[in-house]
Amino acid sequence: MATDTVPLFAQPNTVRPAADAAGMRACCLAACAAGSRATVVRLGCDDSDACRLRALGLNEGTTVAVVDDRHGTLLDVRGTRLALGTALTERITVQPHV
Questions:
Q1: Which CATH number goes with the domain that contains 75?
Q2: Is residue 14 part of a domain?
Q3: pLDDT tens for residues 16-38?
Q4: Which domain holds residue 68?
Q5: Which pLDDT tens digit goes with each residue over 51-74?
Q6: Residues 6 or more apart from 92 whose CB is under 8 A from it?
Q7: What is the pTM (predicted TM-score) of this model?
Q8: Chain CA centroid to CA 24, Å
Q9: CA-based diameter of the chain, in Å?
Q10: Is there a domain that residue 16 lies in?
Q11: 84: β partners
């Protein structure tokens, strides 16, 4: 086995769609429209950004509501508003609520 190749699932900042038991696809947070709700599945950003987001309450399993998506993403997380840039929200995988 070649040691210079890294499997896709092991590469940092790589978001792969996942499906739950009902067949719903996960997506990046940037793809969620204003007014939608989703549960965070994975923080695919670097360790320092992930640590900061977790300290602000944005953890795996947390339900978030997208308040606005015009210039980045404005979220309601546990009663607190967080504004995140598009580059960061593209690396956060969520499971949209239907």
A1: 2.30.30.90
A2: no
A3: 444 444 456 899 999 999 999 99
A4: 23-96
A5: 999 999 999 999 999 999 998 899
A6: 28, 29, 40, 42, 43, 44, 45, 53, 58, 84
A7: 0.74
A8: 15
A9: 49
A10: no
A11: 73
Radius of gyration of the chain (CA): 14
Is residue 55 left, alpha or beta, with left meaning phi > 0 and alpha meaning psi from -120 to 50? alpha
Give CA–CA dist 86/88, Å, rounded: 5
DSSP letter, residue 36? -
Beta carbons of 98 and 38 less than 8 angstroms apart: no
Tokens 């009902």 belong to residue: 22
Give the three-state DSSP class for 65: strand
Does residue 43 sit within a domain?
Answer: yes
* 17 within some domain: no
For residue 77, what are the contacts with CB-CB under 8 A and spacing of at least 6? 56, 57, 58, 62, 64
* Among 38, 19, 33, CA closest to 92: 38
| Domain count for the chain | 1
